[in-house]
Amino acid sequence: MECDRCGREAVMHAAYSGAHLCGDHVRAAVEKRVRRRIREDGLLPADASPESPQTWVIGLSGGKDSVVLTHVLEETFGRDPRVELVALSIHEGIEGYRDESLDACRTLTDGRDLRHEVVSYADELGVRMDDVVEKDPENMAACAYCGVFRRDLLETYADELGADKLLTGHNLDDEAQTALMNFFQGDLQQIAKHFDASLGSFDRRTESTHFVPRAKPLRDVPEKEVALYAHLADLPAHITECPHASEAYRGEIRELLLSVEEEHPGTRHSIMAGYEELAELAARRYRDDGTEDLNECERCGSSTGGRICRKCRLVESIEAV
Ligand code: SF4
Ligand SMILES: [Zn+2]
Ligand SMILES: [Zn+2]
């Protein structure tokens, strides 16, 4: 098959659009969608200037998604004085997994003269995921602990680094899975929160005063194309899966979605188009004004609805074992 754009040999056929593309045009198409998403979501405010630049902190795990996101952002904004990019990696303390992916992060950022910060569960919380899995005081899946810790550290450090936005590498498949999971769980409040937390464009969401606003510039790009981009651009992405990966429900939804997409190309895109509209309606119905009454955690100062935040309660119960 030939590339629709230039006639060279195609390396990809996108069933949802009918396009056949060569390597160069796959890369161009991915970059175009990321830039369009950044524009449409209003990530770069009109008043950003060299004197008053935006700081964008990128959650960089070393996996293909965050590596591609970091690369495209650096290519696009690396020399733009209105934007300062900082990559932030979290070390969970998972033997034989995170060290290698951090090597990938360092190779990527060193080669690009990009500021890169690493924070670890061990230094910040006094726990390592390998030990958490062994102790498991709450009888929960590894990712349930890990997700709470990661969110907290990303938030804390994004704030400390002066972030205006926190950008993560979620792709189209991730977002369509989350949409379906929220539907299947019948959780409209969660859908409303999703809109304001990261889904809606910045002019349509109500931002919380307690958290750094998030965005997902890769969310229009299917997972397979992100992987192909990483390969074509020869990026140092780490592909091994975490040995504690345990999001069983998401795994089922992923399989389901891939099989429906196979039979009905374009399903992920149409799910997201409808979901975003629905999420905005849900947000209008359920959102508060973004200044909800949150307290400072008595232990760590993070925002929480109670006296002590969930992260601190989990750390405490791990330490008690
Ligand atoms: S797969 Fe789960 S345990 Fe492993 S790093 Fe991700 S969230 Fe943490
Ligand atoms: Zn081409
Ligand atoms: Zn706390």
UniProtKB/TrEMBL annotation:
Concerning Gene3D superfamilies, the annotation shows:
HUPs
Q: Which GO terms describe its cellular component?
A: cytosolic tRNA wobble base thiouridylase complex
Q: Which GO terms describe its biological process?
A: tRNA wobble position uridine thiolation
Q: Which residues bind Zn(2+) 1?
A: C3, C6, C22, H25
| Occurrences of domain 2-thiouridine synthetase TtuA-like N-terminal LIM (ranges) | 2-25
Transmembrane stretches, by residue range? none
InterPro entries in UniProt = CTU1-like_ATP-bd, Ncs6/Tuc1/Ctu1, Rossmann-like_a/b/a_fold, TilS/TtcA_N, tRNA_thiolation_TtcA_Ctu1, TtuA-like_LIM_N
Q: Boundaries of each tRNA(Ile)-lysidine/2-thiocytidine synthase N-terminal domain copy?
A: 56-232
Q: Keywords in alphabetical order, please.
A: ATP-binding, Metal-binding, Nucleotide-binding, Transferase, Zinc
Under the heading SUPFAM superfamilies, the entry gives: Adenine nucleotide alpha hydrolases-like
Q: Which residues form the signal peptide?
A: none
Q: Which NCBIfam families match?
A: TIGR00269 family protein, tRNAThiolNcsA
Protein's name according to its UniProt entry: TIGR00269 family protein
Its source organism is Haloplanus salinus
Taxonomy of the source species:
Archaea, Methanobacteriati, Methanobacteriota, Stenosarchaea group, Halobacteria
